[in-house]
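Deviations from the work plan: none for this task. Representative record:
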Amino acid sequence: MKLFVTGGAGFIGSNFVRYWLKHHPEDHVVNYDLLTYAGNLENLAEIENNPHYTFIKGDIRDPEAVREAMRGANVVVHFAAESHVDRSITDPSGFVTTNVVGTQVLLDAAREHEVQRFHHVSTDEVFGSLELGSEEKFTPHTPYDPRSPYSASKAGSDHLVRAYGETFGLPWTITNCSNNYGPYHFPEKLIPLAITNILEGKSVPVYGDGLNVRDWLYVEDHCRAIEAVLHHGEEEHTYLVGGMSEDISNLDLVKMILELMGADESLITYVKDRPGHDRRYAVDWSTTQADLGWEPSVTLEEGLQQTIDWYREHEDWWRRVKSGSYQDYYTKQYGNE
Ligand code: NAD
Ligand code: DAU
């Protein structure tokens, strides 16, 4: 099988490419990635010489380049996106062009090449925000209610994928997954930001009252879920993927990280809230479990410990990522905290 993976140099994409070649060494993976600030070929150093792996630098918004690069692929796994909610608030435009237009360009190429499956990697954020303290969870029947430019652009891409299925008969699947964490996570996101700031002896910024809730999943469990969907998923089907059975607030999560790292809670700094900050996410993944036999295998405590160990052992990686233009972003976002 030849997989055409978009965004394979980013956080989840690079974990997926390494996972796939380890578990399916007979397959060929083409990684098509623009290498934006979030794309990093260092994430793939251990497989860069694998003859079953090809990297192509390119933009998913470029129809000619996409058409050429996708030639011969049986399956498309589409990760490429602008993925950070805070950046979508500062400047939404790239989110619309990459996440919406880029997806449409890929869908057209997939039609032309008659790929056997277009798998779209999406987010639980398309469902909006749940009440704090409620028992409610997102299910495959929850209506879309995106509330940030990021989630609105991902919702648009989900709709396009389904529309291409209905209109043109393109075989598709979608996963809507909750918050991932793990190795190679870009340190603009809460967990790697907290870990690396603690390692640097810096404060950990917590937005608003810190009571917002996210549903955390170890990244390899997400890769396993996509694998299960590619192998056993039904065409024209959406699968929900998540990790938690109990709510944990951002504040309690940060306290857990501080404790696991032997650091003091005085490092917590409350900063101004994110505009339109979704209060709570919780994913009911029971139908995915029933249909595919998938379930998360790593507990939050285990996953955080593994992630902390990874960041301790890969200081060169995150120090390089945190230098350069990331510093300008950090100062704009957090001031001089
Ligand atoms: P990321 O920001 O770490 O990586 C995105 C990758 O896409 C980068 O390698 C970047 O270079 C590439 N890219 C961006 N624009 C491109 C373009 N125009 N053309 C080609 N490549 C481009 O993102 P991530 O956190 O790994 O997320 C991957 C996917 O999973 C996204 O679609 C995201 O919406 C979805 N998702 C993420 C999470 C999460 O918690 N991170 C959860 C659910 C779903
Ligand atoms: O739910 C899935 C989504 O999870 C993905 O679709 C997105 O691509 C991914 O970025 C993530 O979005 P979030 O906005 O939930 O992740 P982030 O790590 O940015 O923030 C997690 C929570 O922590 C959120 O409630 C905001 C808060 N936060 C974040 C940062 C960066 C802080 O309190 N302080 C911070 O410095």
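The radius of gyration is 19 Å.
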